[in-house]
Specification:
The chain has about 170 residues and is mainly alpha-helical. It has 8 helices and no strands. The chain is globular, with a radius of gyration of 16 Å. The relative contact order is 0.08. The model has no long low-confidence stretch (mean pLDDT about 90).
């Protein structure tokens, strides 16, 4: 049983990676199948994570509204199960989806990203906070708020150096 769950977990991760790097449609479909297999084996752990990753893929295909529904479901599931370690990441993904839906109205996306940063600080999840801060800084830059972007990134980058695993820091 543990091997089956590991396999389902691995298949989900591979599907998401394929969707991000090569083919959104195939990755989304394969991640959906991996999620179904994962749940069918009785696992509930990591479900908010995988639902969030599926929403991230689905924001590019097939539907932004479907992706918003999925990310909201992932956040609700995290709240119900107490699996809160993904909350910052899920709020960041929600912000990114909202930006894709309507880049001319960034207020809801900004709110989601600020929530992600606050949760990451509270949980001391620096990498989740950094990714949310980078996304929000890009939003600030795009809307002529360069000073706010710089002020936001300063604390997020404090003490960090660029690495091959996190080139975004540079």
């Amino acid at each position: 049983m543990a091997a089956d769950l590991s396999r389902a977990h691995s298949m989900g991760t591979l599907a998401w990676t394929h969707g991000r790097l090569e083919d959104h449609e195939v990755g989304s479909r394969n991640l959906g199948q991996a999620l179904s297999d994962y749940v069918a084996r009785g696992s509930k752990g990591l479900l908010p994570l995988f639902k969030g990753l599926k929403a991230q893929l689905d924001a590019d295909w097939p539907s932004i509204e479907e992706a918003l529904t999925q990310i909201d479901d992932a956040l609700d599931l995290a709240a119900r199960t107490g699996e809160r370690w993904t909350d910052a990441m899920l709020h960041r993904i929600r912000g990114e989806i909202l930006l894709k839906r309507d880049p001319t109205k960034p207020a809801l996306a900004e709110e989601a990203l600020l929530t992600a940063i606050a949760i990451a600080r509270q949980q001391r999840a620096r990498s989740f906070g950094l990714f949310a801060a980078l996304t929000l800084a890009k939003l600030y830059q795009a809307t002529g708020r360069a000073a706010e972007a710089t002020a936001l990134l300063g604390p997020a980058l404090e003490g960090l150096s660029a690495t091959p695993e996190m080139p975004e820091i540079a």
